Amino acid sequence: MTEKTSGAAAPLLRLTGVGKNYGNVIALRDVSLEASEGEVTCVLGDNGAGKSTLIKVVAGLHRHDTGTYEVQGEKVAFGSPRDALDRGIATVYQDLAVVPLMPVWRNFFLGSEKRKRFAVMDVEFMRETTHREMAAMGIDLRDVNQPIGTLSGGERQCVAIARAVYFGAKALVLDEPTAALGVKQAGVVLRYVVQARERGLAVIFITHNPHHAYPVGDRFLILNRGQSIGYHAKNDITRDELTALMAGGSELEELAHELDTTAAGTAAAKELRKETLNP
Ligand SMILES: Nc1ncnc2c1ncn2[C@@H]1O[C@H](COP(=O)(O)OP(=O)(O)OP(=O)(O)O)[C@@H](O)[C@H]1O
Fold first, then answer.
1. CA 91 → CA 15, 169, 189, distances in Å?
2. 81 is in which domain, residue-wise?
3. Does the interface ipTM go beyond 0.85?
């Protein structure tokens, strides 16, 4: 477990025994997690595991029904994403709310435009700032005037991350930022995740890919059907163990067991077990 030198200081964000129902669907049950400055907490889970619901609680879109949510040691129950943002919790969704035909800098400042006297937009300032902030995160944009729609998916994610950092986020919640990306682009985004951590943010990184989570994560929460099936610090778990847990360990064993009833099936079951433990 990565011990913080700050000793007794409360983590930036802490969920304890949180539950959330949609009518009689239990989307989350008794889930706990912490996110501290300068750390990446990964939340892993398959479809329907409860990842989106967890994000919505953290981001202020939904209130939790049970358990507690604390920010810097203070209990909160956000009524809207604005409340969460006011406490420094910024969420970057996979389907980024960008205006594709507008320049990168306009998207960077969208809704928070810098103005000079007589409400005239300070375009120069916004262009320079966008370029500088992107460079600080390790991306050298040739032209901040280019429409954001011309950037790659990975670069667009990076603009959103840089923007959140610039506007003072203390905690950054990333909703499957690498899901729709190829290996190279995913690598670019992972580099940003590390950058955000280096800049002292508490990062919550939602993903279903243990190969993306493991290299950048400090803690790992694995969800399955709304419940935690593991919460580990990096030095408590290997990448292979994380992958096996994520693959739904017992479910795969069940699948292998079913396959293992004929000679041909035995070979496939063996393969499946091997795959799960040594991806
Ligand atoms: N608005 C809703 N009303 C009813 N049930 C819901 C609602 N949103 C989610 N659920 C249910 O809650 C459970 C958790 O869903 P959630 O979307 O949080 O999972 P997820 O891990 O994000 O999955 P995915 O990766 O497929 O988005 C699922 O069984 C889902 O069907």
1. 16, 9, 15
2. 13-245
3. yes
Q: Do 240 and 190 fall within a single domain? A: yes
- Region of residue 44 (left: phi > 0; alpha: psi -120 to 50; beta: else): beta
Alpha-carbon gap, residue 49 to 27, rounded angstroms = 8
Instruction: Calculate helix-pair angle for 239-246, 263-277, nearest 10 degrees.
Output: 130
- Residue 7 included in any domain: no
Regarding whether 212 and 100 lie in a shared domain, the answer is yes
76 and 159 in a single domain? The answer is yes
CA of 24 to the centre of ligand 1 (A): 12
Chain segment 147-199, per-residue pLDDT in tens: 988 888 778 888 888 888 888 899 999 998 888 788 888 888 898 889 889 88
Low-confidence ranges of the chain (pLDDT < 50): 1-7, 277-279
Amino acid identity of residue 180, one-letter, is A
State the total domains in the chain: 2
Any ligand 1 atom below 6 A from CB of 53: yes
Contact 187 CB / ligand 1 (< 6 Å):
no
Q: Which amino acid is at 70?
A: E
Residue count of the chain, please give it. 279
**Straight-line distance from the first to the last Cα atom of the chain, in angstroms, rounded to the nearest whole number:** 25
Query: CA–CA distance from 11 to each of 5, 7, 51 (Å)?
Result: 12, 10, 21
Query: Which pLDDT value is given to residue 254?
Result: 62
Q: Is 48 in the pocket of ligand 1 (CB under 6 A)?
A: yes
